[in-house]
Amino acid sequence: MLKGSLNPFDIRSVVQTRTERRIVQDIDDLVPSRLGTATHTAMENAWLNHYAAAMANLGYSDEVIASIKINPDVVNPGDVPVYLEKRTNRKLLDYTISGKFDIVINGELHDLKTTRTFAWISGSNDREYQLQGSIYRWLNPDLITEDYLTINYLFTDWNVNRAMSENDYPTNRCMSKKFPLLSLKDIETFMVDKLAQFKKYETAPQEELPKCSTKELWQEHPRWAYYKSPNNMKRATKLFDLEKDANLFNQLNGSKGVVVKREGEPRRCNYCAARNYCLQAQDFELAGLLNKQETYP
Q1: Residue 112 has what pLDDT?
Q2: Using one digit for the tens of pLDDT, what is the confidence trace for 263-275?
Q3: Cα 241 off chain centre by
Q4: Which of 78, 102, 113, 291 pairs with 259 at a CA distance of 20 to 30 A?
Q5: What CATH number did the domain enclosing 41 receive?
């Protein structure tokens, strides 16, 4: 379906949901995932076809370059094995666990993330990165021998001015960070618990499913807004982290104002593929915490 001009970024696709709603999705919403796919493809191509020239340009010796072995079946002494985009399946309980890592270099797991700087600053995905990497090691303990994961970030919204003025902002467009991996025993315990939960709710109606927690939703703590006059509540005079502080401020100002609780925005809903079907997300929309997605009847 075309709406407006014929600019390709204005093209929208319409999909039918199980709830019979027709959801309009901007092509622009698909750009981040497609960018990530393209970046991973480029990385794989660079290692498969251009690593020798690239390493020479970076100053590596001929001896080091010769030691690199891409996806080797046998690793000999002195070799530096590099495994790319390898998918592994492994049985656990009644399920098959499947995963495909980005790259393993000499036993060290690396993952490439094209993401916004918010992920670096807030650490909102750190736990998920750790779990993901730990599952990859559980799937490939013979290839992944180091007990940490290196995340290589490529920031899509990096700003040089913020990098120069904000202490917690990434200093470069490309940055790396290491995360400790869980032990094989601990990550298997985690997966067993998750699979048990999945089995319990596999056929349950959505109303009975556990709701996402505030942490899973990337939802900030509520704040309390003080409005100087109940007749003018377009803009708050002051925001407070604690309700008691807001009420005290109101009292000090003659109790003529109004204190209103503001729930934090569940930001992760904006990136969740299940949002169009999710009752919890619909409740957030009704409460005004999420912008309602455009639909056709």
Answers
A1: 92
A2: 888 888 887 888 8
A3: 26
A4: 291
A5: 3.90.320
Domain count, the chain: 1
Residue 125 phi/psi, 5-degree rounding, is: -105, 5
| pLDDT tens digit sequence for 202-213 | 899 999 999 998
3-state secondary structure 71-127: CCCCCCCCCEEEEECCEEEEEECCEEEEEECCEEECCEEEEEEEECHHHHHHCCCHH
Contacts by 23-30 with C-beta closer than 8 Å and gap 24+?
Answer: 23/276, 23/293, 23/294, 23/295, 24/293, 24/294, 24/295, 24/296
Q: Is 7 within the bounds of a domain? A: no
Q: Quote the longest CA-to-CA distance of the chain.
A: 80
Parallel, antiparallel, or unpaired for β 223-227 and 258-262?
antiparallel
Q: Are 227 and 239 in contact (CB under 8 A)?
A: no
CB 259 within 8 A of CB 250: yes
Residue 294 DSSP one-character state: P
Indicate if the pLDDT at residue 255 is higher than 90.
no
Residue 276 lies in a domain: no
pTM: 0.75
* Structural contact between residues 106 and 81, judged by C-beta atoms closer than 8 angstroms: yes
Q: What is the pLDDT of residues 103-149, one digit of tens each?
A: 999 999 999 999 989 889 988 889 999 999 999 999 999 999 999 99
Query: Tokens 């690396």 sit at which residue?
Result: 110
Separation in Å, CA 276 to CA 16, 19, 94, 163: 10, 9, 29, 36
Q: For residue 102, which amino acid is it? A: D
The verdict on residue 167 lying in a domain is yes
